Fold this sequence. Notes:
Blueprint: E1 3-7, H1 13-23, H2 30-38, E2 42-49, E3 52-62, E4 65-73, H3 82-96, E5 101-107, H4 111-119, E6 123-132, E7 136-143
Parallel strand pairs: 4-5
Antiparallel strand pairs: 1-2, 2-3, 3-4, 5-7, 6-7
Amino acid sequence: MTINYRIMTAQDIPDIFSVDRMCFEHNWTLESYECELNNMLATYIVAEDNDQIIGFGGFWAIIDEAQITNIGVLESYRGRGVAQKILNEMIKLAGVKGCLAMTLEVRVDNKAAIALYEANGFEKAGVRKNYYDNKTDGLIMWRYQLE
């Protein structure tokens, strides 16, 4: 298994949308991913195995902070370090773009994602009540140094 990591292109959008639908309850629309290509703040990484997209992650670089929008990996590829490598690429690229810190919201019940972020220096900073579909809280996390 050789997984490649690269910047998202327009041709990737349908496959990224498909991965999104398999990973998340509250999905973005196909159009929202298309808009991200024209969003000068957005950067997305895709992970592909044999030319099949198996995961992706994105962030917005806003002044000197990076806001993670989402990271999704197909269930059959979880536990193999794919999300870790996507996150590594995102942190590296955020630093290149001049970001000094990175933040995100994650479902309070997503133990695997919280563990990934904590293992990568993210700290719990607060809670957004009813953030996801007005029923599940979102945990706010920050990583204050990207080096």
